[in-house]
Amino acid sequence: MIALFVDKIRFFDTTLRDGEQTPGVSLKPSQKVEIATMLAELGVSTIEAGSAAASEGEREALRLIAGAGLSAEIATFVRALPLDIDYAADCGADCVHLVVPVSDLHIGAKLRKSREQVCEMAWNAVEYAKERGLVVELSGEDASRADPDYLAGLFRGGVERGADRLCFCDTVGILTPEQVASVIPGLLFAPLSIHCHDDLGMAMTNTLAALKAGASAAHVTVNGLGERAGNTPIEELVMALEVLYGVQTGIRTDGLYHVATAVSKMTGVPLPLNKAIVGEMAFTHESGIHAHGVLRNASTYEPIRPEQVGRTRRILLGKHSGTASVQAALHELGYVCDEGQIAEIVARVKAIGDEGRRVTDADLMAVADSVLDLVREPVITLKQVTVVSGSNVIPTASVTLTVNGGEVTCAATGNGPVDAAIEALRRAVAGAGDIRLEDYQVDAITGGTDALVDVTVCLSKDGRMLTSRGARTDIIMGSVEAMVSGMNRLLEERG
Ligand SMILES: CC(=O)SCCNC(=O)CCNC(=O)[C@H](O)C(C)(C)COP(=O)(O)OP(=O)(O)OC[C@H]1O[C@@H](n2cnc3c(N)ncnc32)[C@H](O)[C@@H]1OP(=O)(O)O
Ligand SMILES: CC(=O)C(=O)O
């Protein structure tokens, strides 16, 4: 374990300010309130809810979040201007993140002012924010490229005028941990935060280095969202601190995945598959040797338990699978096979993988049925599907199925034709079981508008999950095929 400077680290979450500065991301006030509530429940100390000066919508969000009675301190970004500070106070913020450019580049090229003028602006703003009853976190923007003596003087003067906390911003992500270790100890005139950007992939490393060198708070965002390459991801920092440094962060780690997926959905920024902690593959295993090890003892290939961050382990089948993982999947699906049958099933699973395809549960069941010579009458058969969609109609689908021998016709509307068709299918089988769509993924196997579309769905019934696929040139029929195949498997008698 490496000792950190303070026992209790504060997490200043800026998902709703720097995170929302991710180009193309824009949240409605109601979405901001939803995310702020989740962040407070997670246990962060401060939520930077936005930039009050930016727009009426931002002020509306700030008013709502500040009035929501959350346990976290509510902050807003402000420039060193009375107007911005007035917005913050009038909206009910607890705290201002008062940002002042401190490098000669930013002072000269951007503000076109002198070092002395910027000090004056910063100090006047601190005094004014204190008069308005706000907690002040005085931040040095582009501090990594500032003259350290000038920065120290500006910070010291700010604290003398009432600043409660300070923040060192590595605005363009150019620090090294060695520079952090040398500069941070000279700036501890008040509790100091570190705000890192990930332009060179160093945000996490530099944040940890600052916490070792004397900083007591880390600026973080969910999923590492933020300007350009983003900021330090809360999920990675919290888990690194807990697991590698033995720090009790006070963050409810089992809520991290829920917040990550909710933020990804609301911002429209997908989670990279292989992202640490929250990526889809972070607790998924396919290789035979890994799956075999994990099935005997999960620690062999998992540094932390998935449940610690609100996740579950998955073992996927494909061309890298071995006997142990195929056997475990067959057992889970209720099949009893001898050694020869398993060897044949493993060979056929690998053959599907060699064709470049994912192996779903329904694929495995089809292979197993064929190897075991099991003949199953399908519970449902599709007789027809009709979909209407266009510029002036609500997407509507009707389906006719035979379900356990009886004919059922159902219709539904949806957000689009696929959604309508899936809902119509769900309604048509409702008498046989409540089947829910948990996940829907689509890949175009070839380029162009005539591409073969590969749809994978994850369905659940009574807590049992199952994946299945459909592949057609028509996305609606590919989706229907995946649904019908999966529903059939979920409705079959097991054993
Ligand atoms: C590193 C960071 O993440 S900094 C935070 C970035 N966040 C944002 O920009 C929030 C969203 N921004 C906005 O909505 C708008 O830019 C506003 C409302 C803040 C300002 O809009 P405008 O008044 O039209 O100004 P514009 O965006 O063109 O330029 C920024 C102005 O702020 C000034 N400024 C920039 N930083 C500061 C500061 N810390 N303190 C005081 N003034 C500042 C600039 O000098 C410029 O003013 P000038 O044209 O008089 O020189
Ligand atoms: C303030 C801020 O977001 C930065 O300097 O990066």
Descriptive overview:
- With 495 residues, the chain is α/β, with parallel strands linked by helices.
- The chain folds into three domains: 10-267, Alpha-Beta Barrel (TIM Barrel), CATH 3.20.20; 283-371, Orthogonal Bundle (Recoverin, domain 1), CATH 1.10.238; 380-491, Alpha-isopropylmalate synthase LeuA, regulatory domain (Double Stranded RNA Binding Domain), CATH 3.30.160.
- The chain is 38% helix and 20% strand.
- The chain is built from 16 helices and 16 strands.
- It has an eight-stranded parallel beta barrel with strand order 1-2-3-4-5-6-7-8, surrounded by seven helices. It has a three-stranded antiparallel beta sheet with strand order 11-12-13. It has a three-stranded antiparallel beta sheet with strand order 14-15-16.
- The longest helix has 17 residues, at 115-131.
- The two termini are 50 Å apart.
- The structure holds acetyl coenzyme *A and pyruvic acid (PYR).
Helices, by number, come to 16
Question: Helix amount, in percent?
Answer: 25-40%
- Residue fraction in strands: 15-25%
What are the segments in which pLDDT stays under 50 over at least 5 consecutive residues?
Answer: none
Total strands: 16
Small molecules bound: acetyl coenzyme *A, pyruvic acid
CATH superfamily of the largest domain: Aldolase class I
Read across the widest sheet, the strand sequence of neighbours is 1-2-3-4-5-6-7-8
Tell me about the largest β-sheet. 8 strands, parallel, barrel
In angstroms, what separates the terminal alpha carbons? 50 Å
How many independent structural domains?
3
CATH topology of the largest domain: TIM Barrel
Q: Which architecture name of the largest domain does CATH use?
A: Alpha-Beta Barrel
pLDDT average, as an integer?
95
Structural class: alpha/beta
| Rg, alpha carbons | 28 Å
Query: What oligomeric state is this?
Result: single chain
GO molecular function: (R)-citramalate synthase activity; 2-isopropylmalate synthase activity
Protein name: Putative (R)-citramalate synthase CimA
Pathway: Amino-acid biosynthesis; L-isoleucine biosynthesis; 2-oxobutanoate from pyruvate: step 1/3
Pfam families: HCS_D2, HMGL-like, LeuA_dimer
